[in-house]
Design brief:
It contains nine helices and seven strands, in the order H-E-H-H-H-E-H-E-H-E-E-E-H-H-E-H. It has about 220 residues and is α/β, with parallel strands linked by helices. Strand 4 and strand 5 (about 130) form a beta hairpin. Bound molecules: adenosine monophosphate.
């Protein structure tokens, strides 16, 4: 989905409840930025322009993740792959590591809502939960960390949002056709409420499990 579609929010709930590992290339890149070395500064300037980081950097990050046997078949990618080259690289890495994609989820949201969502976004640097200061603020009922952990991202400003959206349309949207052809794509209305989207994702998981169970019975 485009920036602000709710990928990170859903990813948080999915990994927590389905016992998976979240691999967010955005988070991995921000970790590099925080090191404040030459590579980190280069990545920061790309992120702040709303462009995609070079594929060789992303491919190396993913290669290392797939080599970790603890993650075997238990990965939820958030914001990856982001273009067709990354799709091809992922295909070959999965083949090499004898793993498969079970489902691809796309969250659809219109351009106007993206602005409202991103400009109010706050991420808790302690627990990873994502809030919105206008629509879904952090309160004592939904968040136990201190409010000083709530952070805004440097790329969550109006100018960068426009570029990130254009990058999405130009580079990322075309990958949906690839996954549609492979019968892996599930499109969800990202404008729905957080718990409604999550319920739909639970439904997708349940239908995949039924399908795998039938396959097992017929074997
Ligand atoms: P995200 O946290 O997913 O919104 O990503 C924030 C920024 O990190 C993006 O706007 C890109 O600049 C960069 N980024 C994240 N994931 C990727 C990726 N798979 N390929 C290239 N750049 C990425």
């Amino acid at each position: 989905g485009p920036p602000g579609a709710g990928k990170g929010t859903q990813a948080y709930f999915i990994v927590k409840n389905f016992n998976l590992y979240k691999v967010s290339t955005g988070d991995l890149l921000r970790d590099e930025v925080n090191k404040k070395n030459e590579l980190g500064n280069k990545i920061k300037s790309i992120i702040d322009k709303g462009l995609l980081a070079p594929d060789n950097i992303i491919n190396k990050l993913i290669d290392n993740i797939l080599l970790n046997k603890n993650f075997n078949n238990r990965i939820l990618f958030d914001g990856y792959p982001r273009n067709l080259d990354q799709v091809k690289n992922l295909e070959s890495l999965l083949k090499k590591n004898n793993q498969k994609i079970s489902a691809v989820i796309s969250l659809n949201i219109d351009k106007e809502s993206i602005f409202k969502r991103i400009l109010g976004r706050q991420t808790c640097s302690n627990c990873g939960l994502i809030f919105n200061e206008y629509f879904y603020p952090s309160t004592s009922a939904n968040h136990s960390c201190n409010s000083s952990f709530l952070k805004k991202r440097s790329d969550d400003n109006e100018k960068t949002i426009i570029n990130r959206f254009e990058t999405y349309i130009d580079k990322t949207l075309p990958i949906l056709d690839f996954y549609k052809e492979q019968n892996l794509l599930h499109q969800i209305n990202g404008m729905a409420k957080i718990h409604e989207i999550y319920k739909e994702i639970q439904g997708i998981k349940a239908s995949l499990e039924t399908w795998l169970y039938k396959l097992y019975l017929y074997k």
